[in-house]
Design a protein that fits this description.
The complex is a heterodimer. By secondary structure, chain A is an alpha/beta fold. Chain A contains 15 helices and 11 strands. Chain B has a two-stranded antiparallel sheet. Classes of the chains: A alpha/beta, B mainly alpha. Chains A and B meet through helix 9, helix 10, helix 11, helix 12 and helix 13 of A and helix 1 and helix 2 of B.
Chain lengths: ~475, ~100
């Protein structure tokens, strides 16, 4: 059952071969046995999960099952889930019990899916290795001395280690795609505005987007169907017809034009990652696709632009943590300023403080034009590069991350080195485009390699089709570390 | 670009972060490295380029002017660090 697709699991549940209570129990046992080594979950609550499973079994018995009814899903600990501790990987929210559900959680609940637990993550989603979590680093199931990527590292590790049937993640600069690549799973960040941000703890609001992380593109399509949809409580939620992301999975790839940005195959890319991506492209050509050379000339500026815009938005968003209405408050203080300063200093970790300080600096008097405004202008140039590229191709492909999973602690002292591990993913967030990562082989160290697929706005169905056809022809996505 | 200790102190104060001398110095060195990366932006000519603040060209939606939220004071104050008689308690602000 652990290696079944979500479609197969749903069929088994409907055929009464297994109940949701049994399936949920199976995963809870695995979590109890293996989470101490992987640290993929921050919180599990077997009682609440099993209660949901009982309700799902009733839905199944009444013949009211939807595609995800009874399926146990790991929820990134950035989504508020009523009655569940929701920490965002931070000491600031270590005791925060969410008083309401995020839109994503509501949607999964309505679909009869099971919240299996809250997955570990970099603190406030700021990190690329899951090492900034207040609850300790997550281990990569392929090699426990290595990182799972981040910020959705717990989700990626849990999916790879079969500690859930599927998971949710969020992606501000690569936080779904990079851990998916490093753990050998499939993940998609849809077009900005497709999934509601209501109840998703904010990092950089103009970039944050939720999406599914799973073992295949087909599973991701099913999950995306449940996650998307207009929500009036998110001012940037897009008013569009509800889409069926499964509909195009079986289309042939003949004639698909794949753009290869020359900047993504240049200096800085590990030769083993480059070789696996080339292999995958050869497979795509065999499947009838054609490749076109394209250029994204401003993409090299994506990292500097991101490290102005994302911290600027974060410094504003995280000003809400003041120790007054919820969250951590320092035990001792002389006056209100000291209460703010001590609560924030003790409640936030170093990376979060660093980003708040960058953001505060670039927004401060005298620097706004040189940093914030300049970054917003280059953001437009980056988006225009993609618009030009999509005149020549249907999808863009390249590496997700410049290297395979690095060792725990390897980039600990050098934030800039860590930031550069998102060099191929960040531009996609700045433009608001959909992006995904699929496994395409293994590097010299035996660790998974991910290939990135970038689509034009609202082309998720086509990207998932391209990924699914590749997964029908290859078996990298079904390799398992356990 | 290299930041001074005074710059970092000022930023920490604006961001309401208490930091001791060791932390200020560590932050200074790391932030200087990050700003070196950020400085790469200055080489780009962006004259005449409209700043892009958001991924989608959206205008703010309006809703009907009617009450949509119910009173959930007890639920929301249940997670507050310190309350009294339905009020959030903080140290005295005005003498």
């Amino acid at each position: 059952m652990l290696n079944s697709s979500l479609k197969q699991m749903a069929a088994a549940l409907r055929a009464n071969e297994i109940s949701s209570v049994e399936l949920t129990g199976l995963y809870l046992e695995r979590i109890a046995a293996h989470n101490p080594s992987y640290n993929a979950y921050i919180t599990v609550n077997p009682e609440m999960s099993l209660q949901q499973a009982r309700l799902a079994d009733e839905m199944l018995a009444r013949g009211q099952a939807q595609p995800l009814t009874g399926i146990p899903i790991g929820q990134k600990d950035i989504f508020c889930a009523k009655g569940w501790r929701t920490t965002c990987g931070s000491k600031m929210l270590a005791d925060f019990i969410a008083p309401y559900d995020a839109h994503v959680i509501e949607q999964f609940n309505a679909a009869g899916a099971i919240n299996l637990g809250k997955t570990n993550m970099d603190e406030f989603a700021m990190g690329s290795s899951n090492e900034t979590s207040y609850f300790g680093p997550v281990k990569n199931p392929w090699d426990q001395t290595r990182v799972p990527g981040g910020s959705s590292g717990g989700a990626a590790s849990a999916v790879a280690a079969r500690l859930c049937a599927a998971a949710t993640g969020t992606d501000t600069g690569g936080s779904i795609r990079q851990p998916a690549a490093l753990c050998g799973i499939t993940g998609i960040k849809p077009t900005y505005g497709t999934v509601s941000r209501y109840g998703m703890i904010a990092f950089a609001s103009s970039l944050d987007q939720a999406g599914p992380m799973a073992r295949s593109a087909e599973d991701c399509a099913l999950l995306l169907n449940a996650m998307t949809g207009f929500d009036e409580r998110d001012s940037t939620s897009l008013q569009r017809e509800k889409e069926d992301y499964v509909r195009d999975l079986d289309l042939p790839l003949k004639g698909l034009r794949i753009g290869l940005p020359r900047e993504f195959f240049a200096e800085g890319l590990s030769p083993d990652v480059a070789a696996r991506v080339e292999d995958a492209l050869s497979e795509y050509r065999r499947l009838g696709a054609v490749t076109v050379d394209i250029s994204l000339p401003n993409s090299k500026l994506a990292v500097p632009v991101y490290y102005v815009l994302a911290p600027a938005e974060a410094s504003s968003n995280l000003s809400r943590y003041d120790g007054v209405r919820y969250g951590y408050r320092a035990p001792e203080y002389a006056d209100i300023t000291e209460m703010y300063e001590k609560s924030r200093s003790q409640g936030f970790g170093n990376e979060v403080k660093r980003r708040i300080m960058i953001g505060t600096y670039v927004l401060s008097h005298g620097y706004y034009d040189a940093y914030y405004l300049q970054a917003q202008k280059i953001r437009r140039l980056i988006a225009q590069d993609f618009a030009e590229a999509f005149k020549q191709c249907d999808v863009i492909m390249g590496p997700t991350s410049p290297s395979t999973a690095f060792r725990l602690g390897e980039k600990g002292d050098d934030p800039v080195q860590m930031y550069l591990s998102d060099i191929y993913t960040i531009a996609v967030n700045l433009a608001g485009l959909p992006g995904m990562s699929i496994p395409c082989g293994f590097g010299d160290n035996g660790m998974p390699v991910g290939m990135q697929i970038i689509g034009d706005y609202f082309s998720e169905a086509r990207m998932l089709n391209a990924a699914h056809q590749y997964q029908l022809a290859t078996d990298w996505h079904s390799r398992s570390p356990v | 670009m290299s930041l001074s200790t005074a710059d970092v102190r000022k930023v920490a104060r604006l961001a309401r972060l208490a930091m001791d001398d060791t932390e200020i110095e560590a932050a200074r060195s790391q932030l200087s490295g990050i700003f070196e990366l950020i400085e790469e932006m200055q080489a780009v000519n962006t004259q005449g380029i409209e700043p892009m603040s958001h991924a989608q060209e959206l205008s703010q939606r309006l809703r009907e002017d009617k009450v949509t939220e119910s009173d959930q004071r007890e639920l929301f104050q249940g997670i507050a660090p310190q309350i009294e008689s339905g009020l959030y308690l903080v140290p005295q602000v005005i003498e």
